[in-house]
Records
---
Amino acid sequence: MRHARIVPMIQRLLLCGLMLAGLGLAQNRVYELRTYTCNEGKLEALKARFRDHTIEIFKRHNMESIGYWIPQDPEKSKTTLIYILAHPSREAARKNWSEFSADPEWKKVAAESEANGKIVQKVESVFMDPADFSQLK
């Protein structure tokens, strides 16, 4: 009789533990701010590559697109794409990028999109944690 009460209690405790662990993992989510500076005249090619291919490939490699922006500054608006990705953790981000870089479809898309010259001149990446008052966690 006692055993019949203990098993469900242990199951509930395990379930609660798993739920708390899941919350802990969600809180470890890391954001990555990336800024791409294109070679002159190549921003439209970069935007097309993201729009038509890259974002879908990101999804397959657990890279969540948060948003994409073009600066309002007249000069930077000609050559700059800024975007934010979310990863489960910094370690996962390294793994995600490694797998993305090795993806055969990505390699093909990158090669085809650069048939008329290299698109990206410089990439800057900053990993970020939300501040405790941030609406985005």
Note: The beta strands are 30-38, 64-69, 80-87, 120-128.
---
Amino acid sequence: MDIFDALLQSHEQQRAICKRLLSAIGEPEQRRQVLDELKVEMAAHETAEERTFYVPLFAHDETVDAARHGIAEHHEMDEMVEDLEQADPGSPEWLESIGKLVQKLEHHLQEEEEKFFPQAREVLSRGQQKALGEPYREEHERLAAKEEEEQERAQQH
């Protein structure tokens, strides 16, 4: 599995969680649980993507700006998630914020797939593309497990 297949798999997982989040509108406790799931997936994806995909792209003038832009959007979405964690899952503000987060996430994923991936395919050799897939998946799995542990500890306190 090359890096693009691995990233697309995670993108699809994020989209599926977002659909569940939007369909759980009537149930505040379920919303919180699905948001926690999205938070784990986003955190693992962002960090693994930055470490294994964006970092090699900084070596190429053609992809530096796109990598910086992607990282900036990751930070924006992280702040949106932090704001959501402070809000009441039953409030109208929470629902509005969820809509904005899902919209921002969808924009980010689409932009990566349609603009950034084609640029990256031009600067990364086929060997690099293949070689980056497994480190991404391993890092993603490690980070997801770590995020889940941290959430469990936080919920126990």
Note: The radius of gyration is 16 Å.
